[in-house]
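[Discussion] Sanity-checking designs against the backbone

I'm trying to build intuition for which residues belong where. Below is a structure token string of 75 positions. I'd appreciate it if someone posts a full sequence so I can compare it with mine line by line.
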């Protein structure tokens, strides 16, 4: 399976978080649609079928990237 670039995953997570916050402030059809779009993109990017699994997978992938980068720096 192809993996998205870590910067792209980080961006998707930040957009998702911002949209969830915005939706909590004002529930609009546009914000809901945008949140659905980014959730779908996260699912496709992580090979998952639901947004909660996609968020967990994206965070895990990023944590793995950080851990590997840290290991290279300390070597």
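Best answer:
Here's mine. Compare freely.
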């Amino acid at each position: 399976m192809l993996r998205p670039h870590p910067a792209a995953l980080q961006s998707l997570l930040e957009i998702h978080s911002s949209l969830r916050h915005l939706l909590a402030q004002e529930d609009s059809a546009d914000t809901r649609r945008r949140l659905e779009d980014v959730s779908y993109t996260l699912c496709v990017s992580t090979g998952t079928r639901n947004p909660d699994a996609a968020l967990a997978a994206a965070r895990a992938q990023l944590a793995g990237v950080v851990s590997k980068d840290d290991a290279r720096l300390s070597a």
